[in-house]
Amino acid sequence: MHTNSAVLFNENTSFTYVDVIVPLYLKNTLTWFVPSQFHNGIAVGVRVEVQIGKSRRYAGIIKKIHQDKPANIEVKPILNVLDDRPILHEDQLKLWAWISKYYMCTEGEVMIAALPSHLKLSSETVVVFNPDHEVDTQTLNEKEYLVSEALEIRSELKISEIQKILDSNHVYPVIKQLIDKRICLVFEQMNETYKAKTETYIHLNSIYHNEEVLETLVNSWSKAPKQLDLLLSFLHLQRTQGDVLKSALLKKANASPAVFDGLVAKDILKVEKRQVDRLPNLPKEFNINFRLSVAQETALMQIQESFQQFPATLLHGVTGSGKTMVYIKLLEQFIKKGVQSLFLLPEIALTSQIIRKLRDHLGGHVAIYHSKFNMSERLELWHKVKSGEVKVVLGARSALFLPFSKLEFIIIDEEHDASYKQQDPAPRYNARDAAIFYAGLVNAKVLLGSATPSLETYYNATTHKYGLVKLSERFGNLELPDITTIDLKLEALDAGQSQIFAPLTIDSIRATLDKGRQIIIFQNRRGYSPYIICNTCSWIPKCTNCDVSLNYHKSSNKLHCHYCGSTYPLYKTCGNCGNQDLLQKNFGTEHIEENLETVFPEQKVARMDTDSIKGKHSHDTLIKQFEEHKIDLLVGTQMVVKGLDFDNVGAVVIPDGDSILHFNDFRVNERAFQLIEQVSGRAGRKNEHGQVFIQLRDTNHPLIEKLQKHDYDAFYNTEIQERQMFFYPPFSRIINVQSRHNDAFASKEAMTIFCNFIRQQYPQFVFGPAQPVINKVRNQYIFECMLKFQKNRQIIDGIKSAIETAVVEVLNHPHLKRTIFTVDVDPL
Ligand SMILES: Nc1ncnc2c1ncn2[C@@H]1O[C@H](COP(=O)(O)OP(=O)(O)OP(=O)(O)O)[C@@H](O)[C@H]1O
Ligand SMILES: [Zn+2]
Questions:
Q1: Which residues bind Zn(2+) 1 (predicted)?
Q2: Of 239, 552, 624, 636, which has fewest CB within 10 angstroms of its CB?
Q3: Which of the residues in the chain have pLDDT under 70?
C-alpha cells in the first residue's frame, strides 16, 4: 500500500516527460519520463539514453519537453543525459519533421540519414579501436580505461559486450567520452574501404617532461651513442618546430629506422599516427584574383536584386559560363557579413576540382562535408558548424542536416541532378526541395544553378515563383560546341577495326587527336556488352534473382547483374535452344575502352565508371591525370558529365545516341537533353571551339536540332506543353508505391488490395497495379502503382493518409503481413 501513496504524492508535483526521436523505423514518437536528477540537463536537441523493449538501448534526441502523461501506457524513465548542450537547433528538428511528413517516412529514418554515425548509438552499434590514436591513459577515468584496454586487445566490441565489461547497463556516457577523446570509433561497414592518410609524429614519453629526469637520462647514457644523437636531434627539433614528424627527424639526424626503433623500445620516444586532414588547414583569407566578365557582373547584380524579391533564384547559365565564379563572389560577400553559407553539389560532382577552386579563392573559410572523409572529421565539422566557426560548407545532400547557427545562403549547383533525390533507403527525400523548405524556415536565400534546369525549376522561374537570371555566353566569349550527327543508317560501322565507331567517327577522333587535343567518349553503360543474345532463338541470359539481362565483363570474364551484383559463368551455348551462336549486343564502357586501344594503339586510353574507380584509380586520380593531359581518350559514364572543367577537350563522342533518346519514362526528353547538353559542355571550354559527334539512327529526333542550337528554351517550350497535355509534373504530383514479397502472387495481391482501397476514395488517380520492367530484385517480386493527382494541399494530405490506411489494411491479412511497401513521393 505504501507504494501507492508514494505515487499519489508525486502526482501532485508536476512530472516532466520528453518525446524522443530514436534512430529506428517507428511510426510514433515515444515518450519517456524524466527523473528529477536529470531535470536540469534536458533540453530540446540534447541526446538521452533510452531503453526500448527488454534490453535495446538507443541514444535518442529530445524533440519536446512537456507535462502530459501519455494515456494508458507505462512510461519508463530516461536512463541518462548524454550531452551538456543540444547537438542541433530546433530548426533542424523542424526540417526532420517536414521531411518525415512530406516524404512519408519516420523521423527516426530522417535521424539515421541526418546524424554522423558518431552521434548515433544503439545496442547494435559496434565500436572499434582507433588504431591511429595513441591513448594517453592518464586522461581516462577507470571505466574509460577498462573499455579502451579491452578495445585495444579485441579491436571491436558490441555495446552489449561493453555492458558486460563494465558490469553495468549505463555505458553510453563512457562511450561518448571515448569517442570525444578519439579513442574509439563507431564502426560503419561503408567506411571500411576508406583508408585515411596518416602521418607519424613523435613525442617524448611524458615522464621526461620533467627536466631533471630528462637530464639524468641524457647524462647517464652509456651504450648506443647513435640513439643518443637521435634523441638530441629530436629535442632540438621539438624546441624549434613544435610537432615532430618521424620522417623529418630521421632525415635531420641522418639516422636509420633501427636506431629510432631502439628509442621506442626503451619507451623514451612514443609514436603517434595522426590522420592528416586531406585538406590542409588553410588560413582564413580571401584570394579573389580574378575579375568577373561584364556578363557575369551583370548576372551577379541581378541575383542580388532577385534575392530582395524571391526566396529562391535560378541562375540559368550555359556550360562554361563561369557560374562557379559568380558563386565565389557571392560566398565572399556572405562570409564578410559573418554569416554561414551552404554549397550543395551532387555527390559525384564533389571532386577535388571544385574543392580546389573554392579553397584557392576562399581559403580556410571553406569546409568540406564528404562521405569519403572519416567519421571523426565529420563529427568535428558538425561541432564547428554549430559554433559558427565554419562559414562555408561544401557538401552533398546530407550536408543540409548540419546544425548551422546563422545560415543565410544556400547554393544548389547542378540543381537538375537526379542524385539530389535519395532513392534507397528512406528518407526518399530530394535535398534540393528540402533545402528550399529549410531556407524558408531560417530565412536564407537560395540560388539554384544549372545549364539545363529541371522542368520543375524552370517552370517555377518562368511563372515568377522563383527569380530567374541568365548567363547566356561562355566565359572568354568561346562558342558552345558544334554538334554533328553521324547517321548509322548510312555509315556502316567499321567492320574491320571497330564494331563501335563508324569510319567517319574514327577520322574525326583522329583529326582531333592530331591537334594535340583530348577526347571524352560518353556511354551510359558499364561493362563490356550490355547483353548477350542467341542468334537463333533470341534467348537472353538473365539474373535468376532479379529478372534483368546480364552484362558481360571482360575483366572478370563473367556475366554480372548490375542490380544485385551476382556473377555467372559465361554461357557457351544458348540456355534455350542449345545453339552455340551467341552474340554480344550493344556495348558498355569496358568494350569501348578496349576497342579504342586497338584502333589508337599509340594513345593513352582510360575509363571512368563505378567499376574502374573502385580499383587503383580513384575518381580524383583519373580527373587529375586527364587534367594533366596524361590521358588522351577518356571513356566514361555519367561520371564524366558532372560539372567537370577541363581545358583541352577538343571533342566529345557519343557512340550510341539512340539509347539516350529512347527510354520508357515520361522524363526521357528532359533527361536526354540534360545528358547530351551537359556532356557536350565538357568540350571546348578553353582556347578553342569544341566538337561533339553523336552516332545514331534516329537522326530526325526533334531533340537533336534543339541540341545543335543549344536552345534550352525551345526544348522547354515543347516539353512543357506535353507535360500539361498528359498531366505530368510540374502540372501534377506523383507518388509511386511498390510492394515487395518473395512470393509473386502475394506481392500482386498486396498491390491489388492497396490500389482498390485507394480507388474507393480517389478512383481517377490510381494507375496500377503494374509489374515494373525490372520486377524481381534480390528474389523479391515487385508490383507497383502510380498515384497522379492535382497539386492541391487538401488532395495531397488526403492521399497520403489514404496510403497509410491502405498499407495497414493490406498488412492485416495474415498471409500478406510480410509485404514490404515503399512509398516514393516526387519520384525521379
Ligand atoms: N571571371 C573569370 N575569370 C577567370 N576565369 C574564369 C572566369 N569565369 C570563368 N572562368 C573559367 O572558365 C571556366 C568555366 O567556368 P565554370 O567551371 O565556372 O563554368 P560553369 O558555368 O560552372 O560550367 P558547367 O555548367 O559546364 O559546369 C573555368 O575554367 C573557370 O575558371
Ligand atoms: Zn541480380
A1: 534, 537, 574, 577
A2: 239
A3: 1-14, 123, 131-137, 187-198, 241-242, 274-281, 372-375, 493-498, 526-531, 546-548, 563-564, 585-586, 612-617, 663-664, 773
**Residues 709, 810: one domain?**
no
The confidence score (pLDDT) of residue 469 equals 98
Query: Residue 302 and residue 466: Cα distance in Å, rounded?
Result: 13
CA-proximal residue: ligand 1, atom 4 (nearest): 290
| Residue 283 covered by a domain | no
Q: Which atom of ligand 1 is nearest to the CA of 450?
A: 25
Same domain, 93 and 202: no
Please check whether residue 325 lies inside any domain of the structure.
Answer: yes
pLDDT of residue 541: 82
Domain end residue (candidates: 546, 563, 585): 585
d(CA 744, CA 76): 42
- Domain shared by 458 and 557, yes or no: no
In the reported structure, the alpha carbon of residue 124 is separated from the centroid of ligand 1 by a whole-number distance in angstroms of 47
Annotated binding site, which residues?
534, 537, 543, 546, 561, 564, 574, 577
Residue list, annotated binding site for Zn(2+): 534, 537, 543, 546, 561, 564, 574, 577
Q: Is there an atom of ligand 1 within 6 Å of 321 CB?
A: yes
Of 495, 424, 564, residue with least CA distance to 109? 424
CB atoms within 10 A of CB 142: 9
Does the complex come out with an ipTM higher than 0.90? yes
d(CA 643, CA 658): 24
Structural domain total, the chain: 7
On whether both 553 and 683 belong to a single domain, the answer is no
- Nearest protein Cα to ligand 1, atom 15: 322
From the CA of 319, the nearest ligand is 1
- Of 100, 679, 181, which is closest to residue 429 (Cα–Cα)? 100
Task: State the DSSP code for 689.
Answer: -
Per-residue model confidence as pLDDT tens digits over 18-38 = 999 998 887 778 899 999 999
Measuring from atom 14 of ligand 1, which residue has the nearest CA? Answer: 320
Beta strands of 285-415 (E only): which ranges?
312-317, 340-344, 366-369, 392-395, 407-413
- Domain holding 409, by residue range, is 294-476
Cβ atoms 518, 633 nearer than 8 A: yes
Helix (H) or strand (E) holding 777: strand 776-777
DSSP-derived letter for residue 610 is T
Q: How far is CA 383 from CA 58, 336, 400, in A?
A: 21, 21, 14
The reply to whether 604 and 710 lie within a common domain is yes
- Tell whether 348 is covered by a domain: yes
Q: Which of 287, 300, 325 to mutate to test the pocket of ligand 1 (most atoms within 8 A of CB)?
A: 325
Ligand 1 contact via 645 beta carbon (within 6 Å): yes
Look at residue 497 in the predicted model and tell me its pLDDT: 47
